[in-house]
Every structure is written in C-alpha cells, then in structure tokens.
Design goal:
Strand content: 15-25%
Number of helices: 9
Structural class: alpha/beta
CATH architecture: Alpha-Beta Barrel
Largest sheet: 8 strands, parallel
Shape: globular
Number of strands: 8
Strand order of the largest sheet: 7-6-5-4-3-2-1-8
Bound molecules: pyridoxal-5'-phosphate
Length: 235
C-alpha cells in the first residue's frame, strides 16, 4: 500500500463520517439498525479507492460504465460494486457480471434488459428503483405516481430481485421530501413482504445525516470522503 498525504485525509474523513453516522443513528433511529457507507468513486484513482477499502469500506458506487470498465481491474476485490448512475440499456451487458446491485432502475425497459442479461449469465441481479422524489424534470428516476406499477412489473421478472429504493433529494430541499421517501419505502416493504426489500439508498455528502434521520440505511459518499472531484461532471 502506497502512503500518500491525500490518503491520510481519506482516513480522517472516514473517521468523521463514521462518527456522524453513529451519532445520527443514536439520535434518530433504533441503535441496532445498521447504515452502510458506500464510497462513490467517480473521477477518483483506483489507488485512493483501494485505500478506502483498506480502511473498511466494503461498497463502491459507480456512475459511468466507461470509467468503471477502465478502473475495475485495479480494484481491491474485497469491496462489492453497485452501479448508481444513469444506465443505458445497451450498456447493461458490460457490467452484468461485475456489479452486485444496480440502484438506478427507473424504467421497465431497463429492468427487462437487466433481467435478460442476468438470466443469460445464470444469475439474479439485485436492483433498487430510483425515484425522482423532487419531481425534477432534469433528473432521472421514476415519478412517485408510477413507482408501484413499475415495482409490480419488476417483481414479476425472474432474474431480478427488488431490494428497495434509491433517491437523490434536491439540494437544499424541504425535509418533507426525505420523509416522503421513507413512506414510499415502507409502503413498498409492506406490498412485497415475501420479497427481500431491505434497502433505502439515500443521502450524499451534504445531506447524509438528514437522510439517516428519515430512514436511509445506505448512504453514498463522494466528496466528503475523497475530497473535491477532479473535473466537473453532469450527473
Ligand atoms: C456523485 C454521486 C454521489 C456522491 O455525491 P457527493 O455529494 O460527492 O457525496 C451519490 N450518489 C450519486 C448517484 C452520485 O452520482
């Protein structure tokens, strides 16, 4: 393991995040509940990502297929990889055997493609449905009004396992938006008691404590862990 000053910063950042997560859980949730911390890797070098893994990060979040394919061979295999970015149907085949969850499913077309490739590879893919909780026209995710119809269709696909919901609440939005996600998640859990709905993926660098307050059990952290990203990107 190469020692670099910016790696020490990652260790410090992670310590702070863990401390804040622990406090938020103690304050707002059942202390027995677990919150997973995902490291969001876009624009970050594999060595730095592997350093985070050496510090106990077991979950990596990928946004772009191309970038992921160029970096994945260098990743420490101890960590699982989830795809969290917008996914074009024609790219599903490139990631189907490497990721353990696709969090950004927002159409039946995409779910069908994932199902097809998962079946062809003899596996079942865990997915989350991404909800456009802020009703932002520019953002991906399914609308709240269409969520349960999509959930029903997805749950009928044999090579997909619906594990829960993902959302990106708008920056600076009302707390009620986070609470709405918790309600949708609870409703989904009740609708599919026989399925393994157990994941609410919500909360990033700027709002993870608020997300935990409102039921998130998987937070996705980029900037607060690795520092500012190397270039500006369109989500
Ligand atoms: C970039 C990204 C994150 C992390 O964002 P930060 O604000 O840097 O923590 C989380 N989720 C998704 C889907 C992202 O694209």
């Amino acid at each position: 393991m190469i020692k670099r000053p910016e790696f020490e910063e990652v260790a410090e950042n992670l310590k702070e995040i863990r401390y804040n997560v622990k406090n938020a859980v103690a304050k707002y949730r059942d202390p027995a509940e677990h919150v997973d911390i995902m490291a969001v890797t876009k624009t970050v070098d594999p060595e730095k990502i592997n350093f985070a893994v050496s510090q106990g990060i077991l979950l990596l979040g990928e946004n772009r297929v191309q970038e992921y394919l160029s970096k994945k061979d260098f990743y420490d295999k101890k960590a699982q990889v989830h795809f969290i970015g917008h996914l074009q149907t024609n790219k599903v085949k490139y990631i189907i055997n490497d990721v353990t969850m696709i969090q950004s499913v927002d159409s039946l077309k995409l779910a069908g493609e994932i199902n097809k490739h998962a079946a062809a590879n003899g596996r079942v893919m865990d997915i989350l449905i991404e909800v456009n909780i802020g009703d932002e026209t520019s953002k991906s995710g399914i609308s709240r009004s269409s969520l349960f119809e999509l959930a029903k269709q997805v749950s009928e696909l044999d090579s997909i396992r619906l594990r829960g919901l993902m959302a990106i609440p708008p920056i600076g939005c009302d707390e009620g938006v986070f609470e709405r996600m918790r309600e949708l998640y609870n409703e989904l859990k009740e609708s599919y008691p026989h399925k393994s709905v157990d994941t609410l993926s919500m909360g990033m660098s700027g709002d993870y404590e608020l997300a935990i307050k409102h039921g998130s059990n998987l937070i996705r952290i980029g900037t607060k862990l690795f520092g500012a990203r190397k270039y500006l990107e369109v989500l």
